[in-house]
Specification:
38% helix; 25% strand; alpha/beta; nine-stranded mixed beta sheet
Length: 220
């Protein structure tokens, strides 16, 4: 598959190859597509494409780091968590950059890297796990959703500087969203709260990643 076809199919390519070393670029764009196909008009990140690519990255001795560009409204919780766990488990240095939105299950994906950036106007939305019309509202079902929510809270607090309880408070905030629970954090506020490490763009993200691979000094 050519680089052009690879970008079109999965939003991934390899940067570098010069003295700085090779960096794998992962794009997490649109909605995280899970076990069911979304409509053809919906921009999606297909987890069944990303998982084998990340396994290939781990096994490729020439690739020295991963840069994840994130602009997602969320999507399938189970598959989003699988992607986040896969990214977090890589042995190679990883940096994420929220370039637009990182909502819902996009939050674990943003914090799964070793170091994270957000552009000044980037947003992160934290809210409770939602039920669909496919779910029967029994006590056991609510307990199951509590378990999923706990997995998300534990993962995010374990991979960032925000505490479990503070994150839970943001998730169940009733003051910001008039028709929903949750909190939207913009740029510097996401950093101040401890979800993201630093405000910056592609220049800062690549500089940080190259410094983590030993190819370029870091100012941080």
């Amino acid at each position: 598959m050519s680089e052009e076809d690879r970008i079109r199919e999965s939003g991934q390519l390899t940067l570098g190859g010069n003295q700085k070393g090779k960096i794998h670029l992962l794009s997490i764009i649109g909605e995280i597509e899970g076990h069911e196909n979304l409509s053809g008009s919906t921009k999606t990140t297909k987890y069944e494409h990303v998982l084998p690519e990340l396994a290939k990255v781990e096994d490729d001795g020439e690739i020295e780091g991963v840069l994840a560009l994130i602009n997602t409204v969320g999507g399938d919780v189970s598959c989003g968590l699988a992607l986040a766990e896969m990214l977090a488990s890589l042995s190679k240095p990883t940096v994420s950059l929220v370039i637009g939105d990182s909502h819902s299950i996009g939050v674990p994906l943003a914090v799964a890297s070793d170091y994270s950036f957000i552009v000044p106007t980037g947003t992160m939305m934290v809210h409770p796990v939602r039920m669909t019309g496919m779910v029967i509202g029994t006590v056991q079902t609510y307990e199951y959703f509590d378990m999923i929510q706990d997995r998300i809270l534990s993962f995010v607090s374990g991979h960032s500087r925000i505490s479990y309880e503070e994150l839970k408070g943001l998730m169940h905030n009733t003051q910001m969203l008039t028709r929903d629970l949750g909190t939207v954090l913009v740029g510097e506020e996401a950093v101040r709260r401890g979800l993201i490490d630093e405000v910056g763009g592609i220049k800062e993200a690549l500089k940080k990643l190259y410094s983590m691979t030993g190819k370029q000094p870091s100012d941080h």
